[in-house]
Structures are given as C-alpha cells and as structure tokens.
From TrEMBL:
Biased composition (Basic and acidic residues): 45-57
Coiled-coil ranges from the UniProt annotation: none
Chain spans, region Disordered: 40-62
Name recorded for this polypeptide: HEAT repeat domain-containing protein
Gene3D superfamilies according to UniProt: Leucine-rich Repeat Variant
Length: 92
C-alpha cells in the first residue's frame, strides 16, 4: 500500500510505472493522487490505464480524477503532435 508521500516522491522522480501501479492501490485517495500525478507528467504510457480507470474504478471521485488526468495527458500529447507537424508557408 502506497502513501500520499510515496505518490509525491514518484511524481517528483517521474516514476510513471510506479504511479501506474499505484492506480490499483486499495486507498481511493492514493489512486486519485496517482491519477492526477500521471496527468501532470503527461506520459503516453498513462493513457490506457487512466482511460480504464475513469470508466471502471468503484469510486466516483477516483473516476473523476482519472478523467481529468486523462484529458491532461491527451491534451498534452496533441500539443506535442501539433508542434511536430511541418509548418507550410502561406500561398500567395
């Protein structure tokens, strides 16, 4: 069982795998904090676990945290993808 301090340490260390494992913790506050921490890191590996969690977690507050984190991750990934797209010069 992880603690909220453990979640903070994992976020600070960018331990995406540890945070994903914490999504299965028995404590709903730990699961919520792990989800939100994954959202702030915006790692593509978190997309599927967060999507599953936002639909399946028994706690409404955890589902809400996962949905928020999912939006953050997907939004950041879209920003990165848009920045990679080649810029076409305007035609005259």
């Amino acid at each position: 069982m992880a603690t909220l301090d453990d979640i903070d340490a994992m976020r600070d260390d960018r331990d995406v795998d540890g945070l994903i494992r914490a999504l299965a913790d028995e404590d709903e506050f730990v699961r919520s904090q792990a989800a939100l921490s994954l959202g702030t890191l915006a790692d593509p590996k978190a997309t599927e676990p967060l999507e599953r969690m936002r639909n399946e977690d028994p706690s409404a507050s955890v589902r809400e945290a996962a949905a928020t984190a999912y939006r953050w991750v997907v939004g950041r990934l879209r920003e990165v993808e848009a920045a990679r797209e080649p810029k076409t010069p305007p035609t005259r």
